[in-house]
Specification:
CATH superfamily of the largest domain in chain A: ANL, N-terminal domain
Number of strands of chain B: 6
Radius of gyration of chain B: 16 Å
Largest interface: A-B, 17 and 22 residues
Strand content of chain B: 35-45%
Strand order of the largest sheet of chain B: 2-3-1-4-6-5
Helix content of chain B: 25-40%
Strand content of chain A: 15-25%
Helix content of chain A: 25-40%
Shape of chain A: globular
Oligomer: heterodimer
Number of helices of chain A: 11
């Protein structure tokens, strides 16, 4: 169902008019209230009055993750702190955390974005939504929570982890929709089967999965394991959290809530805006945000804007499932590969499970990159003969070579030996000191 | 005779073999034959035990990857050339051997050798026809 037909099914011209009005207002606000943006715009010789059409957005500066780190914690605040009602933060595993500060209205937009997202997966007030995203500074947990409440569904704030309790809650409260990371959805199903519970008999009919890159084949695995429909959702702390874009029942690209978060695709090398249909880096401008508004934030996520209008009735533009992030990109001996491509390829091979770990190192002797792919052996594929197992290993290596053009050394490891994650799965260990 | 062998997938990681034997010990399962096939990255442990059903269950509970395979147990005289005679017999009858290993069992002057053969039924008929079969009781 469509949560907000007025905005989600808006006529294109009317939507652009709204976006332009909001953009113009945003530029005036940041120019007046955020010294960081005023200085940058002054240096570029751009005044708010120069923004005369939506296309003039290209005159505005980009904002990068480093800008957010440099201004930690409150350097980009555009309102007095008394207007801020909540803050969230990225995990900071890759550096200084980045902060998102929300006013009452920002909270409202965030809840709206998530209400649309959950509705896209079929949620109504009659549903019981089990929210297994982590609660706390991470936006995934509370974002899904606020969206569920906006709809009026019954939300179970299970948070992440405590797997056996999750299964008990699903069974006892007849959870109909689950929200968590895709890797955790698979782990939950695996644990259920170990405990003698058939996940497909539990009646969960759909799930909203995000916060980490995943592949189309992983979607099939999750759907098969649970007998549910798995929806891809998109968002990031810097912008608001989850709720920025979501799949509808067509499961074909994610509708961007572009009346709130305006998307562009750029060439990551030159910064030039790319036309619809061309793959590049997603850039988002938070056109209604009050607390920490951002001009042209470089998400580092690689995707493209789909040209076709969706059959679901929404007119908002869609972005394709993410291809990876510019900073997840592994360059192994000069060949570019995203971990999600390795995952997608792996799942197509019989006898392996979608649990894997990529370890990249540089040889001290040859100074060449060496990538090792740890793959869990599926119990059904296990043979008592070493040559069968070696054939399986060689087959994986050959498929990786032919499909992705990379030489990976495959190591077969015991089932369940790769660490399971309750949040974002760690798929790559890069030991190279570059 | 045909007996059940249990195979276990082992990563080349410290302590995995010790862990298997500890699980079997705790379960009171007695080993009758043991052999490891190893590669640079992993090993496959093959064992014959007194209680295969129990071994399978407790190893599975301990999260090991296990499977069972039917193999032949063959009695071979403990004297020079006996194994050569048995292998010659297999060769004459066109029985392909995947691998073999000796059991801990020894009955009088007879040793027991475990054979994994390509064609189990054919192998068994040769063993029976030459009276090399049923001596060992595991």
């Amino acid at each position: 169902m469509i949560w907000n037909p007025e905005h989600e099914c808006m006529d294109k011209a009317a939507l652009q008019k709204l976006q332009f009005a909001r953009l113009k207002n945003l530029v005036e606000r940041v120019y007046t209230n955020v010294p960081f943006y005023r200085d940058t715009l002054d240096k570029m010789g751009v005044k708010p009055s120069d923004i005369r059409s939506l296309a003039d957005i290209a005159k505005l500066p980009f904002t990068t993750k480093d800008d957010l780190r440099d201004t930690y914690p409150y350097g980009l605040l555009a309102v007095p702190q008394s207007e801020i009602v909540e803050i969230h933060m990225s995990s900071g595993t890759t550096g200084t955390p980045v902060v998102d500060a929300y006013t009452r209205r920002d909270m409202d937009d965030w809840s709206e974005g998530m209400a649309r997202t959950l509705s896209g997966a079929g949620a109504t007030r009659n549903d019981t939504i089990q929210n297994a995203y982590g609660y706390g500074l991470f936006t995934g947990g509370l974002g899904s929570h606020y969206g569920s409440q906006r709809i009026g569904a019954t939300v179970i704030p299970a948070s992440s982890g405590n797997t056996e309790k999750q299964l008990m809650l699903i069974r006892d409260f007849k959870t109909s929709i689950i929200t968590c990371t895709p890797s955790y959805a698979l782990y939950l199903a695996e644990r259920a089967r170990e405990l003698g519970i058939d996940p497909t008999a539990l009646g969960v009919r759909s799930g909203c999965f995000g916060a980490e890159p995943w592949s189309e084949n992983m979607r099939k695995e999750i759907e098969k394991a649970w007998g549910l429909k798995a929806y891809d959702i998109y968002g990031l702390t810097e912008i608001t959290g989850p709720g920025v874009a979501f799949e509808c029942e067509a499961q074909c690209g994610m509708h961007v809530n572009e009346d709130l978060w305006y998307p562009e695709i750029i060439d990551p090398a030159t910064g030039a805006v790319l036309p619809e249909g061309e793959k590049g880096e997603l850039v988002i401008t938070t056109i209604t945000k009050e607390g920490t508004p951002l001009l042209r934030y470089r998400t580092r996520d690689i995707t493209f804007i789909m040209k076709e209008v969706c059959g679901c009735g929404r007119t908002t533009r869609r972005i394709h499932r993410l291809f990876g992030r510019t900073d997840d990109l592994l360059i192994i001996r000069g060949v570019n590969v995203f971990p999600s491509q390795i995952e997608h390829t792996l799942i197509e091979i019989q006898g392996v499970d979608p649990n894997y770990l990529i370890i990249v190192d540089r040889s001290a002797q040859t100074h060449l990159d060496e990538a090792e792919l740890h793959v869990e052996v599926n119990p059904e594929a296990f043979s008592d003969e070493t040559r069968d197992m070696e054939a399986l290993r060689n087959r994986i290596e050959a498929v990786m070579k032919s499909k992705l053009g990379i030489n990976l050394k495959v190591k077969l490891v015991e089932p369940k030996s790769i660490e399971r994650s309750i949040g974002k799965a760690k798929r790559v260990i890069d030991k190279r000191s570059l | 005779m045909v007996i059940q062998q249990i195979s276990i997938f082992l990563e080349n990681a410290a302590g995995r073999l010790a862990e298997v034997t500890r699980v079997l010990k705790d379960g009171g399962v007695n080993l009758r034959a043991i052999m490891i096939a190893d590669t640079a990255d992993f090993g496959i442990l093959r064992i014959i035990v007194d209680n295969p059903d129990k071994a399978l269950r407790i190893l599975g509970d301990a999260q090991f990857t296990v499977k069972t395979t039917d193999v032949l147990s063959v009695t071979v005289k403990d004297s020079v050339g006996s194994l050569a005679d048995v292998l010659a017999l297999f060769e004459q009858n066109g029985i392909n051997i995947e691998y073999l290993y000796a059991a801990l069992e020894k009955i009088g002057e007879t040793a027991v050798v475990i054979f994994k053969v390509e064609d189990l039924d054919k192998g068994l008929s040769v063993v029976k026809a030459h009276g090399l079969g049923p001596a060992a009781t595991f």
